[in-house]
Every structure is written in C-alpha cells, then in structure tokens.
Amino acid sequence: MELIVEGVRKAILLLVTFDPEVYGITWLSLKVSGTATFISLIIGISLGTVVALSRFPGRGLVVSLINTGMGVPPVVVGLFVTIFLWRNGPLGVLELLYTPTAIVIAQAVIATPIVAGISLASIQKLPEALRLQILALGATRAQMVWMLIKEARLPLLAAVMAGFGGVISEVGASIMVGGNIKGYTRVLTTATVMETSRGNFDTAIALGVILLLFTFCINAALTSIQQKERPR
What we know:
Helices cover 78% and strands 0% of the residues. By secondary structure, it is an all-alpha fold. The protein has a domain at 24-184: MetI-like (MetI-like fold), CATH 1.10.3720.
C-alpha cells in the first residue's frame, strides 16, 4: 500500500513540476494514439457503413473478419507490421521501423476493426424503413448515408472511445515497432513497462496514474458529449 501511495505522490510531483521527460512522453502518447484513432475512424466508419448498407456474396465472411479483427492480440499486429516495415520487408524502403509513424500504423491497424465493428452494428441497427424514407424525400445515396451516420452518432461516439482506449493502453505492438527509444518513440505504456522491469515501481506507478488520468479526462469529455446528445 505504501508503494502505491508513493507512486501517486510521485505522479502528482511529476505533473506539478512540469517534468520535461514525462510531459514529452505524455505528449507523444496523445499525439500517436490520437492520430491512430483519427485514421481508424475514417477507415473504420467508412468500412462499417459500407458493409452495413450493402448486400454482396461473402458479406458474412467480411463481417466475421471484422469481428475477429476486434480481438486480434496487439502483439500479433506488431509482428506483422514489423515484418512489413523491416529493412528487407515490402515497405522497408520507407525506413519507418522504430519511428513514431510505425507506432501510428500499428495502433491504427489495432483500432480500425474495433471502430468498424461498432459502426457496422450501429448502422445495421437503424430501421431499414428509415433509409427508404430518406431516399423517398429526394436525398441522394450519399446524403442518405450521411444522415444515417448522424442518426447513429451516439453509438459511434462509443466507437471513438473504444478505439482510443484500445490504442492508448496498448504496449506490445508499440514496443515491437517503436523500440521504446528515449525521447523519440517512448510512450506512457512502454515507459511503464521499462520502469517496472528495472524495479522502479514508484516511477512505474506514477506513469500509470498519469496514463489513467489522461485516459479518464478524454473519455469523460466524450461521454459528456454522448450523454448530452442522448434522446430524452
């Protein structure tokens, strides 16, 4: 218990003293995970919406693949992204391995199926009669899709929170593709693992508290928006 209290005390001290290394790690974490979440939203919502509104041979297989992707272990994603970005891999010429960009790619791959799965379920849950009604009022198909997305905005906000939560807390893939390089690719999760392995439990707890604090603040803001939009 004393160790936990000391960790919380150190976390507060690191925050109020504006420790440059901690703030650098925190900023990189938010920047990398925020970018990955944004990319996953563009791809995931688009993919989920298309699959939800379409009927084609093999649709069931596509839905199964999306649902399977929601549970793929991050280390498996890290493995394949590393292989692709390795110097002898298909994308090795880009020299992206052990860079923040590599972490963004890995985290986007992790979050996209999560966002796509929730988006698919959200759009699919809307009454089919609503689509026909929108089209009957003279809307184009693109306008119809946009109105359906607006109608499903509350569960889609849940997709944002799930996608962000999945990547900000991810550690395996980030270490594999980023290398946990101090001042360059070290994020809150990888720094926590490193400090724990060194036996610096107070610092590890402090970093963990900071991670939880920022995650809570972001999700609290999104939840507030979601609840304000909730039908009464």
